[in-house]
């Protein structure tokens, strides 16, 4: 589709009952048109920032984003900062409307930087040091996904800006080799779980392990044992 395929009145009507919009940069002209209309209607937007997309395809979508999810390759490609925590901070500095950014890290789980509005003048803490301290708190013997979080604080990185927020690390499930079939679609499964978490107002500490568990389940064979039901929020009946 291209923007001229749909009138603004029809687009507004289509978005009337939407609570959250997901965009991934494909058909970027149409995506931007929909995103701008959603922004006018105060609809939050999650952008899937894939490293294959160009700046032309993504930069204006990221300007509108409320939430950003990306792969582990994207932060360095976008910011030229090799340290992932510092690169995530730079992304939030570049896009001040984004409330959080999550990088998926494959078998290493994920990392999330969440922003809160705070004008306190406290000294900034290096986000790289915060990430290292969080990694030491991760229980390496846990087979199921877990999450560790820093306190809310002012954070600085290798760029020029600072934000007030917190860093979270989510671990991935350790899947036995016989149960591992294919990682295709795991990123989409992760993002779907994040969208569900946002729609159900799930706390990040619960959302990250849930999303990692859903992604892990996408990798399994049909013979694999079902994952723990207590990690899966109750779904409304249809």
UniProtKB/TrEMBL annotation:
Source domain of life: Eukaryota
Annotated organism of origin: Aegilops tauschii subsp. strangulata
InterPro entries, per database record: Ketohexokinase-related, PfkB_dom, Ribokinase-like
Protein name, entry field: Carbohydrate kinase PfkB domain-containing protein
Database matches in SUPFAM superfamilies: Ribokinase-like
Domain Carbohydrate kinase PfkB, chain residue ranges per copy: 173-216
